Amino acid sequence: MCLLSGINLTGPLPEDIVSLSELQRLDLSDNTGLTGPLPSNIGNLKNLLRLVLSGCNLSGPIPESIGSLLQLESLFLNSNRFSGSIPHSIGNLENLIWLDLSGNQLDGNLPVSNKTTPGLDNLSMVEHFHLGENKFSGEIPLGLFRSNMSLRHLILNGNQLNGTIPDTLGLVLDLEVIRLDRNSLSGMVPQNLNDLINMGELYLANNNLSGPIPELSGMNRLTYIDLSNNRFTSSDVPLWFTTLPSLTTLRMENTSLNGKLPAALFNQSNLQTVLLRNNQLNGTVDIGTGFGSDLHHIDLRNNFIDELILGEYSHSILLDENPFCERQEAKGICKNVEPLNALKFIPEVHCVPLSCFTDFTGSDCGRPYLGRLVFLSFNFSNLENLTYYNFLDGKLKTAIDSLLVTKICLVSSTIETINDYLVLEIAFFPPPGTHFDRTIISRIGNTLNDHLFKSPYGPYHFIPHVPYAFPERQPNIPLIIGLSISGFVLTLLTVSAGAYAYRQRKIARRADKLNNPFSSWSYGDLPQIQGVRFISLEDVKQCTNNFAEINEIGIGGYGKVYKGKLDNGQLVAIKRAQEGSLQGALEFKTEMELLSRVHHKNVVNLVGFCFDRGEHMLIYEFVPYGSLRASLSGRSGVTLNWKRRLKVALGAARGLAYLHELAEPPIIHRDIKSENILLGDQLTAKVGDFGLSKLLRKDEDVTSQVKGTMGYLDPEYLSTQLLTEKSDVYSFGVVMLELVTGRLPIMTNKEYIVREVKVTMNDTGYIYNLVDPVIRYSNLTGMVEFVELALKCVEYSGDKRPSMGKVVKEIESIIQAGEKNLKDVLSSYPGTSDSSTSQSNKNSTSHSNSSKSGPSST
C-alpha cells in the first residue's frame, strides 16, 4: 500500500515504481508537482486493485499496458492533462468498478469491442463511467450499453459528442445519474429512458435535441432534471411536472414550453428550485395557493406571464421581461436588473471563529486544510438549508478520523453556472494549537479521492485550494547541547564520515549512469556507429515539417512516430521519445546499439538517430503497410489471405532466427507480438522495436526483471525470471495463433487463445470454428500442420519448444506442401499440363504485381 496524497511530491512519476509488483493500492493524488507521462509498463503492477492519480499534472497518452492490470477495481486519472484516445485495452479490466478519466484532454471515439479488440462495453461490473470534460467526438456507440451492466453513473458532459442518444441506454436499469449535457447531440430523446425507474439526476442541457419533450412520468425517484437549451418542439407544460414525488430541481430554460403553469407544480413538498426562463409560458402563475416549505428560488424571466399570485411566498422570484412587470403592482417584484447569483450561499454562522482562517497560533484553532468538494451531480438545490451539510462534520469526519480532524466547516456553497456542479468550499481543522502532518493530509486525500467516503449526493471530486503548508521542524535545543558536549566524539567520526561520503558519491555516480544512459554523451562527442548516421534536430524538423500532425503515423508507450523524407529522398519513420522519459532513453540506447549490429531483410533497418538538445529519436526505414496487428484487425486496409499469412509468418520467423542463431552475440527480442511485426514492400515481414531486447552471451543465462506484453509472455520466464531464446519462441507461437484466429491473445471474456486452441484441438481436433472469418471460407491447405507447430511453440517448458531455425524449416515445408498440392490438383483436370500450370503461375504473378498500387487487394 502506497498512500501519498497531497504531500507536495514533484517531478516525473518514477519508472521504477513498476518494480513494486506486490502493490495493491497506489494513491499519489493531489500532488500538482507530479508531471510527465505514466510509465509505459504500468501494466506490470499485476496485483494493483486501486490506482488513484487524480489532481496531478500528468500528461501524454494513457499507455496500452494499463489493460494488463486485470485485478484493478478503481482507476482514477481525473483532473490531469492526459491526451490521446482511451486505450481499447481498458476493456480487459473486467473487475473494474470505478473508471474516472474526467477533466483531461482525451479525444477520439469512445472505444467499443469488435472481433479483435476489447472496449468499454465489456466492463459489465463497472458502476461509474466518469468521462466528462474531455474532447471525445463522434457518436455515442450503440453497442456501449448492455442490459447486464451494473452502471450507475454515466458522466459524459462537456465533450464534442454528436449523433443521437442510443436507445440501448434504456437497457441499463441500474442507472441513477446521466450527464450528457454540453455536447452536440441531436434527434429525439429515446422513449425507453422512461423505463429507468432508478434515475435520480438527468442532465441533457445544451445540446441540439429535438422532437417532443420526453415523457418522464415513470422516473419516480427523479430529483434533479435539466433539459435546457435544446430544440424541442413547442408544447404545453408536460403533466409529469406535477407527478414526480422526489423532484427538487426543475430546469427547462429555452425549451419552447408554452401555456400556463399549473399551481400543483409549486405544491410539491420536495421542490426547491424552478428555472423556466426564456420560454413561452403565459397566463397566471399561482404560487400562493400552496407551496412546499423548501421552495426558495423561481426564475420565470422572458415569458408571457401577465398575472402573479404570491400569497405568503417570500423567497427569490425573477419575473423580468414578462407583461406582468409592466403593471403598477409589479413594482418591487420585477427589478429589471440582472440578479445576484441566487445559487450561492455563505453561511452567517461559522463553526469556528473567522480568525482561525488567518491566525493559527491561538488556543481555539489550528492550521486548516482548505479545499473544495465538487459534486458532479446532486439531489438538492436549496443551498440555505444547513441540514444538507450535516454529513461534513458527521460521517465525513468519522470516515477520516475524528481524533485527528476535530472540525469540518462549510465556508460556502455554490451551483456554478458553467458545468452545473455543486461546489462546497470546506475547511478541515486539526486539534487546537496544532497542524496536520503529511500522514493526515494524505489520509484526507485518500479518503476522498479514492471514494472511501460515500457521499449522500452522488459522485464528487476533491480539489485542495493550495498545497498544505507543512511547518518546518523547530530546532531541538537539548539535542544541540548534547551534541556540543559530544564534540570530541564527532571529531573522531569525521574521518569515517568522509570515507562514507566518498563511497556514496561513487555509488551515486554509478546509479546516475544506470538511470541516465546518456550521461557520458554530449553534442559533438557522440558515438560513431557503423551504418547509422547522426541526424540533427533541425534536419529532423525539416523532414517532418516541424513534426506536423499530418505526418504523425503512430503512437506508443515510447512516444509518437512521424513519417519523413531525408535529404537524399529516402522515406523514413521517426520514433520520438516522450520528454523526460528515462525508461524511453534506456530503450532508445538499447535499440540503437542492437539494431546497428543486425542487417537482415526481415529485421527493420535503422537508418540513423538524433540525440540533440534533449531530444531522443530513432530513424528507421519507412515500412508502408504498418503492423501485422493493424492488418489482422482491418485498421490498415490490408487484407491477408491464408497464403499471405503463411509468408508473413515465414518472414518473421526468419528474422527472429537470424537474431537467435546468426547475430553475434545472439539477441533475445523479449517483446515479439503482432504489433512489432511490420509489413514492408510486397508485404515482407520485418521484426521491429528492440527497446526491451537483451544480448545472450555464450554459456550465460539471462536473469532479469520480467518485461514484455501480457498474452505473449512466456509463462516459464514469468515464473523463473530466466530469459532464453525459447521465450521468443513462445511469443512467436502466440503470433502464429493470431494469424489463424485473427484474435488478440487475451480476449475480453478472459479467453486466452493459447488455451482455447489447445482445448479445441484436444477435444475435437477440429480448428475450423476458431479460424478468422476473413479466411474461413478459402483454401486453408496446411492449416492443421501450422496450428500443430504453433502449439509446439507454446509448450510450457522451453525445452519442449523448437528453435526458431526449426520453426523456419517447418513453415517452409508447409508452404512447399501447399504449392505441391495445388499443382497436383491442377494437373488432375483434363487438358492441364505442367506448361499450363506454369503459365497459370505466371498469370498469378502478373496479377500480383499489378496489384501493388492497392494493398487491400492482396
From TrEMBL:
<dbReference type="InterPro" id="IPR001611">
    <property type="entry name" value="Leu-rich_rpt"/>
</dbReference>
<keyword id="KW-0472">Membrane</keyword>
<keyword id="KW-0808">Transferase</keyword>
<dbReference type="GO" id="GO:0005524">
    <property type="term" value="F:ATP binding"/>
</dbReference>
<dbReference type="Pfam" id="PF07714">
    <property type="entry name" value="PK_Tyr_Ser-Thr"/>
</dbReference>
<keyword id="KW-0418">Kinase</keyword>
<keyword id="KW-0677">Repeat</keyword>
<keyword id="KW-0067">ATP-binding</keyword>
<keyword id="KW-0732">Signal</keyword>
<dbReference type="InterPro" id="IPR008271">
    <property type="entry name" value="Ser/Thr_kinase_AS"/>
</dbReference>
<dbReference type="InterPro" id="IPR011009">
    <property type="entry name" value="Kinase-like_dom_sf"/>
</dbReference>
<dbReference type="InterPro" id="IPR055414">
    <property type="entry name" value="LRR_R13L4/SHOC2-like"/>
</dbReference>
<feature type="compositionally biased region" description="Low complexity">
    <location>
        <begin position="827"/>
        <end position="858"/>
    </location>
</feature>
<dbReference type="InterPro" id="IPR001245">
    <property type="entry name" value="Ser-Thr/Tyr_kinase_cat_dom"/>
</dbReference>
<keyword id="KW-1133">Transmembrane helix</keyword>
<keyword id="KW-0723">Serine/threonine-protein kinase</keyword>
<dbReference type="Pfam" id="PF23598">
    <property type="entry name" value="LRR_14"/>
</dbReference>
<feature type="transmembrane region" description="Helical">
    <location>
        <begin position="479"/>
        <end position="502"/>
    </location>
</feature>
<dbReference type="GO" id="GO:0004674">
    <property type="term" value="F:protein serine/threonine kinase activity"/>
</dbReference>
<dbReference type="GO" id="GO:0016020">
    <property type="term" value="C:membrane"/>
</dbReference>
<protein>
    <recommendedName>
        <fullName>non-specific serine/threonine protein kinase</fullName>
        <ecNumber>2.7.11.1</ecNumber>
    </recommendedName>
</protein>
<feature type="region of interest" description="Disordered">
    <location>
        <begin position="825"/>
        <end position="858"/>
    </location>
</feature>
<keyword id="KW-0325">Glycoprotein</keyword>
<keyword id="KW-0547">Nucleotide-binding</keyword>
<keyword id="KW-0675">Receptor</keyword>
<dbReference type="Pfam" id="PF00560">
    <property type="entry name" value="LRR_1"/>
</dbReference>
<keyword id="KW-0433">Leucine-rich repeat</keyword>
<feature type="domain" description="Protein kinase">
    <location>
        <begin position="547"/>
        <end position="815"/>
    </location>
</feature>
<dbReference type="InterPro" id="IPR017441">
    <property type="entry name" value="Protein_kinase_ATP_BS"/>
</dbReference>
<dbReference type="InterPro" id="IPR000719">
    <property type="entry name" value="Prot_kinase_dom"/>
</dbReference>
<keyword id="KW-0812">Transmembrane</keyword>
<feature type="binding site">
    <location>
        <position position="575"/>
    </location>
    <ligand>
        <name>ATP</name>
    </ligand>
</feature>
<dbReference type="InterPro" id="IPR032675">
    <property type="entry name" value="LRR_dom_sf"/>
</dbReference>
